[in-house]
Model the fold of this input.
Amino acid sequence: MINSILKHFWAFGLCIVLVLVFTVLLAIVFSVWNWVENPGGIFRGSTGTNWVFIYDTATSWFVPTFLYTSVAASAIYIMTVQFLSLYNDRKSASSRDAQDT
Done:
């Protein structure tokens, strides 16, 4: 029982880590993109880079993307585990039936 719990805990943890990496990369890409494009001159100017806008842009991409992606990844993980469980149960049942005959 405890091995099953630990297996699912680490697999789900890996799922969340992948979501975190994806979200951080997405936030970095869009923050750099906005810094390069510099719409309206709010990201950089003659005084240098406006780090407050860079931070605001990164967090505005990170937080919602992390929340939505975490929910989606959790749902996909749960459905995958249930599908594999049903598949393995059906496979073992057919194996037992073949041994009985």
